DNA sequence: AATGAATGAGCCTTCATTCAT
DNA sequence: GATGAATGAAGGCTCATTCAT
């Protein structure tokens, strides 16, 4: 699985070759220079195409940004869903969420970095509504999934709205630090620790 | 305690009145428009001063940004130190870190919002070195403080580098959501829950 | 008589259907958006064809513009000639010129609007020479026609070069105002007034 | 009286020197290249200033355009008012309107050319409302002035809304032709003819 | 004949920063 | 210390036109 996979899955075929090319290099630029500091010209220069072609395919800078952002989010969510489907208890679910999160970030560090960086610009741009809708959907699905497990023996912290923060908060914090080179050890090496901690943090 | 307090503590006196004025309005602009989207002219317009005056006091845009950023970070750190000094056990320390974090964010929402937004620009700008040094210092101090408590009875997760993420990760995640209006309940209302969860997440 | 008539007369048959289609919608765009502001893409979007097809039929933007312009001018001139042919005195001729002008504008408001708007762009574009030739021809024909009437009893203002302005100046001025919605009453309602005034204005 | 006079009257003093300079050269460019075809860069190059200075003073291209347009319109109107104030009968008033119109165009051919060219762009731009208000005012004032003369002996054509067209239509038509070099004789040479014709065209 | 992806020169505008007053 | 006019590099974006399919 590589970064091209994410794009090929979503923009398949020969016709979309340039589109994928542009997106791939735009991702690089956004990460390397920052979202705001990335210019259309910089992207153009990297993929050796023309401004016109970029605008033909994406309309404007926001178009590239949001296309990338939603592709990344989509891939991350699909990955989560796939893993979560296999679980049969709350404990397994928590372990699955944490592990798949860490695995995805380590497998796609560039996409992960971008996801952290691009959220705020997208949330302020013309696609903010679409972002909101997607967030609400993801939240709802997660909630239903987790609440579907009956817990006879174990008491869980209340209310639900803090639970997502408890589950992924530490992993997210560590992954950000890792992507910024503030820590060196791969998040994958801490799958067990973060999963177990998340599980413990939920109990009461 | 209000937002003016942070500035008055650090830039006291009549001579610095304009400086405080500019910083206060710049904070507002950065939060409202975004760091990159805030122009010197926008700040000028809000405090009814002149471009010249702003440059006289801060040299350039980065000057305003970093002054604000380090003031905010400083205040947050001071608050933490003050609270942490009172503690006598690891458990108390964890509770203190989490609680003071949540309290500070709720007491200074504008400064907190700014802190999240401005970190990345500052980390890329000319003050990145100073930021790094400060981060390292804070990390070291925290580490020493926490390791100073002997824990005979309780086993704590290893290694240390994931511990900060376990402690503040969930709180940070929730506070971001709160400041972005994605959740409504004040982080203060969850002091107990986040503290207890952090404490449990550390144990093994 | 409708706007399609002008195009059908000049570009008849099934083969020219797309050509007429493009011209019709281009006319709309030029009037609605302005000549300069109208883009090939806007025209394409309105007739649901392709850029390629437009270029195939007209070569470039000026091609569409001048085709429309000369079609409109032609129709107006034909109308005038037809009316003028029936007259037998200078007075009748003046009445005929003014009336047919007003009638044509009211019958073809879109084409009239376009004629006013497009003259200057055409006069600056690659067809300026053709425009000049046509203007000179029309001027000459009108002059000959008017001078063909002997006027024994009535003295007419001199020299000839101001006469066209005296005849159509007021009507043109009023029609522009009407097309711009600055006045509401139809020019047709003032056929008698403008004709009589033109006739009087020529006498000495 | 020269073209600089119009600007000096409205933007006096040393402080406004650059402003006048820019306007003067912008007028030249608009006339020479056409309103749409004139670029900020072309204006900049002609007055040897910077883009920034232009935007500092006028905000944008429309700002320059409308400043010039309203200055020209204002000057023309002032001239008319001044002449009209001396008149004591309807006949004198008509002669005065026509003559002052012709005189103004001949005295300020560049400004006159511009006035014809710029009306439509201004009427479509952000200052369209101001244009409308001014037009309405001018129309009202003219109407009141003309209706203030009692005409016992002479019957005048009705209704009033066609009268402005009858008075200035021919002169305007001829002046446009003159400015476009389609006729050579100066409009001033036809003061008497256009005035007398206008006067006759009103009678019934 | 028709299509629409691709080109790239050029436009308007922004904005951090300087500097004479 | 304060002011704001002036600078000019740079960015996002448009659009007429071409051309391979």
Q: Key features?
A:
elongated; homotetramer; about 75% helix; Tetracycline Repressor, domain 2; about 200 residues; mainly alpha; DNA-binding
Question: What can you tell me about this protein's structure?
Answer:
Four copies of one chain form a homotetramer. Helices cover 73% and strands 0% of the residues of chain A. Chain A has 204 residues and is mainly alpha-helical. Chain A has a single domain, classed as Orthogonal Bundle (Tetracycline Repressor, domain 2). The N and C termini of chain A lie far apart (39 Å). Chains C and D meet through helix 7, helix 9 and helix 10 of C and helix 7, helix 9 and helix 10 of D. Chain A binds a DNA duplex (21 and 21 nucleotides) through helix 4.
